[in-house]
Specification:
Layout: H1 9-49, E1 58-62, H2 74-81, H3 94-102, E2 107-115, E3 119-126, E4 129-134, E5 149-152, E6 157-159, H4 163-169, E7 174-176, H5 194-209, E8 216-221, E9 226-231, E10 236-240, H6 244-260, E11 265-269, E12 278-280
Parallel strand pairs: 1-3, 4-7, 7-8, 10-11
Antiparallel strand pairs: 2-3, 4-5, 5-6, 8-9, 9-10, 11-12
Helix pairs in contact: 5-6
């Protein structure tokens, strides 16, 4: 077999011309693609971004059941997400906005959608506080907007950082322990302590079973089995972790009986099944 390769200036010139033609075709194609992309970009800018028809005019803010949120406001949404209230609704990513809102301490979830031509619909889940948290050993102060924490019904702790939230929480009871291990209370997470969980449960059960001055002002974890409650009216009551509803029923009957006799309970221990130890105000 004979393989013959001939090289000459003429052949080299023809090859160079062919290669140049190919490169020119690719360059033209690339330029067309770039120009087309740039044209689409400019068209998108003119049609959606710079078009005043799509300028944000209203934020439709609701909770999970379609009602107005108790604590969240449009102003806070704008501040925390960086949305320009005068810009087009296409200038931001709705998924990124939803993630930013869901990460706020007072929210549990968020969904964000556009409603053409100029409405941003935001539906969020709010954390409704049921008590304050406090623990001196962890530096968590009771009823403190700066150093305190709130807790919702599911046991998730979160800071109180808005005026509407602080106003709502002003009269809530305090659930606390003098000393807790590190990590027992972390903002944004569920409380991780058995006694504190039972104290929170007692505060919620008391809210459903009692009223007025008999409601707890604070619930303290005393040890591995007992809780101590101070009512708004000043009665100090001892509870166990368990059978809370039964103990609350006994407490309600006891304070009612004392008032009928013209007396006020100072202390009561609700753990015994019978013969509850009590003291009355103004007596030994």
């Amino acid at each position: 077999m004979l393989e013959l390769r001939v090289r000459s200036p003429r052949i080299f010139l023809f090859d160079a011309v062919k290669l140049t033609a190919r490169l020119f075709k690719f360059s033209v194609f690339g330029a067309i693609v770039v120009a087309l992309g740039f044209g689409i970009y400019l068209g998108y800018q003119k049609m959606f971004i710079e078009n005043e028809e799509f300028a944000l005019k209203r934020i439709d803010l609701t909770n999970e059941v379609g009602e107005e949120p108790q604590f969240m406001t449009n102003q806070r949404i704008l501040e925390m997400t960086g949305i320009d209230p005068g810009a087009s609704i296409f200038t931001f990513n709705v998924d990124e906005v939803a993630a930013a809102i869901a990460n706020l301490p007072e929210t549990s979830s968020a969904q964000v959608t556009r409603r053409l031509p100029d409405i941003l619909k935001i539906q969020l889940g709010e954390r409704i506080p049921v008590a304050w948290l406090a623990c001196p050993s962890l530096g968590i102060e009771e009823r403190s907007i700066g150093k305190g924490l709130l807790v919702d019904a599911s046991g998730v702790a979160f800071p109180c950082i808005t005026k509407p939230l602080a106003k709502f929480a002003a009269e809530l009871p305090v659930v606390f322990a003098e000393e807790l291990p590190a990590g027992a209370i972390i903002a944004g997470e569920k409380i991780d302590h058995e006694g504190l969980s039972y104290a929170l449960e007692l505060a919620q059960n008391a809210d459903a079973a009692l009223e007025g001055d008999d409601l707890p002002s604070w619930v303290m974890v005393r040890d591995e089995i007992t809780l101590e409650v101070m009512t708004i009216g000043g009665t100090r009551a001892t509870f166990s972790y368990f059978e809370q509803e039964h103990q609350l029923s006994k407490f309600s009957k006891s304070v009612g009986h004392a008032r009928e006799s013209g007396r006020e309970l100072a202390t009561i221990n609700l753990i015994p099944n019978r013969y509850l130890p009590v003291t009355y105000r103004g007596t030994n």
